[in-house]
UniProtKB/TrEMBL annotation:
Pfam families: LptF_LptG. The keyword Repeat does not apply. Keywords: Cell membrane, Membrane, Transmembrane, Transmembrane helix. It is a multi-pass membrane protein. It comes from Cupriavidus necator (strain ATCC 17699 / DSM 428 / KCTC 22496 / NCIMB 10442 / H16 / Stanier 337) (Ralstonia eutropha). The gene is yjgQ. This is LPS export ABC transporter permease LptG. Coiled coil: none annotated. One of its GO terms (cellular component) is ATP-binding cassette (ABC) transporter complex. GO terms for biological process: lipopolysaccharide transport; transmembrane transport.
Length: 388
């Protein structure tokens, strides 16, 4: 037990030390390139200082994204150095076997997995939202989705006219300001029989709390059904006459009840992959309530849940490099190959998300497949080096 505590402390000191340096180096590289990219948008309003502040606020997101790769690179470097100096061989002679070493590395990965979870859930999403708001306030713009017309959202509400039933709205929002005011609002409202009953256009809307919105500059086009003749009676009007008539009304302000909240609309500011699991869960529930497709957001949700566990896979991938010998040659090439293996894991993680979305795989399968495949590769490599 004493030898176990000694080598665990020794491994931990080496891995954590190199990890801090690698993370700082990789993060600095990302910040540098992000700043170069932002310089293209610098003007009198969006100054270089604001751009730098925007990039620095995005740094927690970069930390979250590169943590597994930094862990792999640092662990590979440490174990390749231990192998080249025969230190790991000494530990094996002293009684350290492969299973004990792997279990010890998993223990070293626990604090790093907790750090990854904290960054992914609390620090990065909030910093990302604040970074977007800082930029939008500086350039005086709004955010919209990939559609030219804005974002489309489905909404439901009770039919106030009849006191029962459920009306359905399809809401188009052209933009969301940093103060969470929505602009360019167009609503298509259908009755419980899915007949168009109203088209409402508003200049902007402000959330009042309690699922209430105050719309300003409202122009409504209402479709009113004409009275039907009594049963058995001859229709009083021509058969070609319309069954509905339209009327237009304008209001300076309208208070509207809606299930939509600024938190739901905030998906405009942050992509699903950069949202917290709690925000993703709320938005998935909203989409399900409105019978909309949730697969993309469910894949992002499960990836967020599983992502901290990928650090254990990275540690398992790094351990076989401890069994390399300097006299075998090409240690640097093998280390480089291990780094490329880690980068390929990151790329395959993204690839399987798109493949799963394309082929409608279960979201949890799309999130689990890359980690499972690379864990199997790591265990097979450990078995091979242990036997040879």
């Amino acid at each position: 037990m004493k030898i176990l505590r000694v080598y665990e402390r020794y491994f931990g000191r080496l891995v954590y030390g190199v990890f801090a340096f690698i993370l700082f180096a990789v993060l600095s590289l990302f910040v540098f390139f992000d700043m170069l990219n932002e310089l293209e948008n610098v003007n009198n309003q969006y100054t270089s200082l604001v751009a730098l502040f925007h990039v620095l606020l995005q740094a927690p997101t970069r930390v979250y994204e590169v943590l597994p790769i930094a862990v792999l690179i640092s662990a590979i470097y440490v174990f390749s150095q231990l192998a080249s100096q025969s230190e790991y061989t000494i530990f094996r002679v002293a009684g350290l076997n492969t299973r004990q070493a792997l279990f010890s590395l998993f223990k070293l990965a626990v604090p790093l997995a907790i750090v990854t979870f904290i960054f992914g859930e609390f620090i990065a999403p909030r910093a990302e939202q604040y970074a977007q708001k800082i930029k939008l306030e500086a350039i005086g713009a709004t955010v919209s989705s990939g559609f030219r017309s804005g974002v489309w959202v489905k909404d439901r509400d009770k039919d106030a006219a009849t006191g029962g039933g459920e009306i359905t709205r399809f809401v188009n929002v052209a933009g969301l300001r940093p103060d969470q005011t929505i602009t360019g609002i167009t609503m298509y409202e259908f009755d419980p029989q899915y007949r168009l009953r109203m088209i409402r256009v508003a200049q902007e809307g402000r959330y009042q709390g309690g699922q209430l919105w105050e719309l300003q500059g409202v122009n409504e086009t209402r479709f009113i059904e004409l009275a039907s003749p009594a049963q058995g009676a001859k229709p009083a009007r021509d058969s070609l006459a319309p069954d509905f008539r339209a009327e237009q009304v304008k209001f300076p302000r309208v208070t509207m009840h809606s299930e939509l909240t600024p938190q739901i609309l905030s998906v405009l500011l942050v992509t699903p992959e950069r949202m917290s699991t709690l925000d993703l869960f709320r938005y998935i529930r909203h989409l399900r309530d409105n019978k909309q497709d949730t697969q993309r957001y469910e894949i992002a949700f499960w990836k967020k849940v599983i992502y901290p566990l990928t650090l254990f896979v990275m540690m398992a991938l790094a351990l076989p490099f401890a069994y390399l010998h300097a006299r075998a040659g090409a240690v640097g090439v093998k280390v480089f190959g291990g780094i490329m293996l880690g980068l390929s894991f990151h790329l395959s993680n993204t690839l399987f998300s798109h493949v799963g979305l394309l082929h409608t795989w279960p979201p949890i399968i799309s999130a689990l497949v890359p980690g499972t495949l690379y864990l199997m590769v790591a265990l097979l490599a450990l078995r091979w080096v242990d036997r040879h």
